[in-house]
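Quick one - first record:
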Amino acid sequence: MFFSMKFKLAGFLRGLMMISWLIPLTVTALLFKFMMGSNAGIFNQMLMSANLIDNPIGWLSSPEIALWSVIIANIWVGIPFNMLLLSTGLSSLPQDVYESASLDGANWFQKLFYITLPLLRPVIMVVLMLGFIYTFKVFDIVYVMTGVGPINSTEVLSTLAFRYSFTDFQFNLGAATANILFVILLLISLVYLRMIKKDEVI
């Protein structure tokens, strides 16, 4: 909602936000690997400078934290695309509805929960489904940042299919894993299409 507002630096800030989405995933993964991968990384340095931690955190070396580190990098990549879709959806909402609500005495929160979110529901569903599908099949960030380690704690279906096929040369297991990934994403897509069809009927 902030980026859909019209102010002097709105265009510049929207463009700045898109940088993380435009950078190749391999480059992004390497950046986060360097920022998180050592005791001298910027993440540990900032937290220690702010006295939030006493000892460096093993972002990529701890099995309990490594997956969360990958999730943080993936969120950073995905936010600009979601912001672009949502701000586009916000700009297409009819303004006369808001004017009528203002005349009726509706405040900002009432407009948000009773007008904006219901009208934006189709766009929110698209963002959620695309985000789920993209995250479910993510490979580059995991493989470059952690190499599915430590102790396979960041292993996902896409990296498992790759390992079976091109490291262990068990092509049957690799194909089976890839097919499982395909079936899961297909089911999610069918659920999404059914929800969209129900909205069109309503």
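second record:
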Amino acid sequence: MGRPIRAAVCHAFGAPLSVETVHLRAPGPGEVEVTLGAVALCHSDISYAEGAWGGALPAIYGHEAAGHVSALGPGVTGYSIGDPVLVTLLRSCGTCPSCSAAHPATCETPPDLPAPLHLPDGQAVAQGLACGAFAEAVLVTPAQLAPLPADIPLEAACLLACSVTTGVGAVVQSGQVRVGETVVVIGAGGVGLNVIQGARLAGAARIIAVDLLPRKLDEARDFGATDVILASAEKPWALARAVTGRGADAVFVTVGTTAVYDTAPRYLARGGRLVMVGMPHSGETARYEPVILAMCGQDLRGSMMGDTVLARDIPWMVDLWRQGRLMLEPLISGRWSLDQINSAIADTNSGQARRNVIVFD
């Protein structure tokens, strides 16, 4: 049956997760088992558990993790038992047109591995987001790993698996923000704060944070926002234009709310670009006036995982953390046990959290 591990299982969309014992099979060729030290709660995991994007059940979600290599399948090189590693959902093949062009986040032919998880009665459990990291251990491909130095705490390092790379990468890769440009960040949650510090690292002249909660705007200043605007203002885009004088060169939407996408282009300057980071539920649509985008030469572009390349970006970000220029520990708003995961999800859904982290013994 494989190794027994404790995991938070989703048996029905919208229902509380069930913390129970499941079985993780031994790694096969080209697979790595990682015993986890920490996994962060991402809104994508919660949305999947709510049924936002469908999928097979039962399932184990979680994709923003870090731990130590605990077993290696045949043919795996470059890792040894005990190595600290980052675990992500990026299951790239390395050879398709997207991977060959250094865009593994949009891999066209990700490996399709045999189901690694089963209930005690033998029923298969879906490995949500190709990780299934709301569990004590995972079985993944080497492409989903990045080596970590021994001095970085796993509860901080796990944030590099999604929220940090998604936010910072959206700025420096997808959005290609240049020195002296103006930036608007809509949503100052976990990903939004990383967009803000990414814009600071990129040398943006003005970084304007927009959120519904005053407390989150205070936190945005801590991460590098130069100006803050309450989203509940009558015309927040007009307030942003008053700051920049012409609108923003780049606008980042970090919340998965279609109503926000409806108004986000109003923050743009001529020639500006709207970078879509937050993901609404399937079937939801936004409305634009194409004539305005065309006449103003504006762009709409998506950003999947910040267009991250693990081998390139994780060492760079770890070095920034060591220098004190990339904030990781301040992103953690709560530390929880696996048994507390439903309370951690409720806290995340309240909109108050930056990033909640499940810490394993």
